[in-house]
Amino acid sequence: MADREIDDVDRAILYALQEDARDMSSGDIAERTGTSDSTVRKRIQRLESDGVIKGYSADIDYQLSGYPLRMLLYCTASIAERGELVDDILSIEGVVSVQELVTGEQNLLVTAVGESDSDITPVAQRLLDMGLGVTDEVLVRSHETTPFGGFDDDDEG
Fold it and tell me: In this structure, are residues 144 and 103 in contact, taking their beta carbons and an 8 Å threshold?
C-alpha cells in the first residue's frame, strides 16, 4: 500500500510507463511531467517499493507465438479458499492469468493459452481436480489493451 497518495506527477509517470515502459526513459517522462530526471527515478522507485508498480512484462501475441487458443474459464470456489488457490492455479501449465471476481457466483477468471484443445482441456481438468467448479468456458478471438486514461492528465474523456 502506498505511503502517500498518488499525485498528478505519479499518474503521469504511470501513464507513460503503461504506454511504453521499455523505451520510455526517465528523461522522456521528466520532460512530460515538468520535473527532473532524478525526481522521476525516485518516484518510480517509490511506486515500485510501495507495490503500485508490480513489475514490467512483455505484451505477447500468443497467436503469433504459436499458441492460437486463448480460453477464459469462469470458475467458482469457496470464498474462504479462492485467494489461497491463485498461486496453485498460476502453476498449471498454460495458465497465464487469474483474476478474483468480487460479484456473482463465478468468482475466479482463469485465462489459459494453448496450441490446440488438447492443451486447454487438461487445464479445465486440473481446475476441477482442485475442487473448483468450471461454470463457463469462452474462446477469445483477440485481446487488446490500452493505458488507463485516468492516469493521463491530458485525457479529456
Answer: no
Residue pair 105/135 in contact by the 8 Å Cβ criterion: yes
Confidence (pTM): 0.76
Return d(Cα 123, Cα 118) in angstroms, integer.
Answer: 9
Q: What share of the chain is helix, strand, coil (3-state, %, to 5)?
A: 40, 20, 40
Instruction: Please name the residue that has the C-alpha cell 490446440.
Output: 116
Residues 67, 114: Cα–Cα separation, whole Å: 5
Rounded to 5°, angle at Cα 9 from 5 and 14: 85
Amino acid at position 77, single letter: A
pLDDT band at residue 3 using 50, 70 and 90 as cut-offs: low
Nearest Cα neighbor of 76 from 139, 137, 135 is 135
Label residue 91 exposed, middle or buried (CB < 10 Å: 0-12, 13-18, 19+). exposed
